[in-house]
Write a structure and sequence with these properties.
With 248 residues, this protein is mainly α. It has 8 helices and 7 strands; from the N terminus they run H-H-H-H-H-H-H-E-E-E-E-E-E-E-H. Strands 1-2-3 form a 3-stranded antiparallel beta sheet, with no helix packed on it. It has a two-stranded antiparallel sheet with strand order 4-5. The protein starts with a helix and ends with a helix.
């Protein structure tokens, strides 16, 4: 009886451990079956490894260039000074004479303020929107090329210096931003040395506003140039209206 009692007590104490061991063995067998499955090619395994590469091992995002913060000063001064000059000229011409706003002079005053407001909004969009920038995310970083993985795992301190951009099925992999850039069919991609970012739909880097002009902000850039001419036309209209009212 005592021997049977000890046997039952031993089974009661060891049964949880035996259950855990059996479940662990079953999981190991299942994982080995999945990994050794003939349907999984070496390329699939490589892609899976590339997608599991931790993003925190990637080098930090490059710092902005020296002109990123100094170049926009000229653009800000030009837009604000030119807008103030045209608004002041239009108001001065509209208020000249008897100091009363007629129909034409009132229209020029309203129009010049609308144009100045649009100019400031376009300026803010150019400076702050980061249009076209390829941001680092799992969608843009994966799959990490094998050359990049090997370099970062072997010697993370040296980074990716000396390694060129890598062409692949998703386009071009920038080794400075560590992101995949779309192919040329989806728009010209470029890494700007001043902004230190990869952008899509690149047109040119504007030294006046200190930003890359891309497909996403190109309408604002053209509108800002057009507003300079329409603003001058509005100011001339106010001068003409003032002259006609003075003659009458």
């Amino acid at each position: 009886i005592c021997e049977d009692g000890r046997t039952r007590a031993l089974n009661t104490c060891c049964s949880p451990a035996l259950g855990l061991m059996s479940r662990f063995a079953e999981r190991v067998v299942n994982d080995s079956v999945v990994n050794d499955s003939p349907n999984q090619s070496d390329a699939d395994k490589g892609d899976e490894g590339a997608s599991q590469f931790p993003l925190y091992l990637l080098p930090p995002i490059p710092k902005r260039g020296a002109g990123y913060r100094s170049e926009p000063i000229m653009g800000i001064v030009v837009v604000l000074a030119f807008s103030s000059l045209l608004v002041g000229l239009t108001h001065g011409m509209a208020a000249a004479g008897e100091g009363k706003y007629t129909g034409l002079t009132l229209a020029t005053v309203c129009l010049i303020w609308i144009q100045a407001l649009f100019a400031v909004l376009c300026l803010l969009f150019l400076l702050c929107a980061n249009a076209g920038v390829v941001k680092r995310s799992p969608q843009t970083c994966y799959p990490v090329p094998s050359e990049v993985q090997w370099r970062l795992r072997a010697n993370p301190q040296t980074g990716l210096g000396g390694l060129g951009n890598i062409d692949g099925p998703r386009g071009s992999y920038c080794i400075r931003c560590c992101v995949w850039r779309p192919s040329k069919e989806d728009g010209k991609s470029h890494h700007c040395s001043v902004c230190n970012r990869c952008v899509v739909g690149f047109d040119h880097h504007c030294g006046v506003f200190g930003r890359c002009i891309v497909r996403g902000n190109l309408p604002c850039f053209y509108m800002l140039i057009g507003l300079a001419f329409t603003g001058m036309a509005t100011g001339l209209a106010a001068v003409a209206a003032n002259a006609s009212s003075a003659e009458s």
